[in-house]
Amino acid sequence: MTADPSTPDNADAARVVAATGLDWDRIVGAFEAAGGAEASHTDLAAAVHPLMVGSGVGNPGWWGQGATVAYEKQIGRRVTGQSGAGDFQVSATRTVRATTGRGELRDAAGAAVTASGLVTVVDQARVSDTPKRSYWRCSLDGGPALQVAVEPKDTGRFTVTLTVTGMSTAAHREAMRPVLKEILSDL
């Protein structure tokens, strides 16, 4: 049985359908041919990848992952914010103007995390850079991890994303969302 992708309970499927132009029943058929609810996430994503490529959508791997997550929600394997490993994650993003480089903004965002008093950092922050982003990462009290990612958006503006992973419940995830937004509001 497949769900109507336009229903609020299947908003992820609706986004995949809108982006790819593929019929949700056709996508579900690919999942079911790969073993459906008995198949692993990896096997499901591999099964739908040819459809995504054939649709002509940009970044077919990303859309294939999105379709797989939507299907896993539909069959009850996971809920919103839940990773394939079963833990929960949440992100909040803000675009900020800055005259500094992304490394300096990364450090300022990390300082905002520790100064906020809203989360308890339990280890030394780790910083790294890729050609695209600068990262600041730490562990939080109770086991979750927090990541700051800073990416140039356009001249003088940067996207700052705070992500917390490793939360054990959906309730913890929902409680963390306003915390991340408050930290970002101080940048």
Your description of this structure?
This protein is α+β, with helices and mostly antiparallel strands and 187 residues long. The protein folds into 2 domains: 67 residues; 98 residues, 2-Layer Sandwich (TATA-Binding Protein), CATH 3.30.310. 43% of the residues lie in helices and 22% in strands. The protein has 6 helices and 5 strands. Strands 1-5-4-3-2 form a 5-stranded antiparallel sheet, with helices on one face. Helix 1 packs antiparallel against helix 4. The longest helix has 16 residues. It is globular, with a radius of gyration of 19 Å.
SSE topology string = HHHHEHEEEEH
The proportion of strand residues reads 15-25%
**What is the mean pLDDT?**
91
Number of helices: 6
Report the CATH topology name of the largest domain: TATA-Binding Protein
Biggest sheet record: 5 strands, antiparallel
Number of domains: 2
Termini separation (Å)? 47 Å
> Based on CA inertia axes, which overall geometry fits?
globular
Primary descriptors:
alpha+beta; TATA-Binding Protein; single chain; 5-stranded antiparallel beta sheet; 187 residues
Give me the secondary-structure topology:
Blueprint: H1 11-20, H2 24-33, H3 41-55, H4 60-74, E1 88-97, H5 102-116, E2 126-129, E3 134-139, E4 145-154, E5 157-167, H6 170-185
Helix pairs in contact: 1-4, 2-3, 3-4
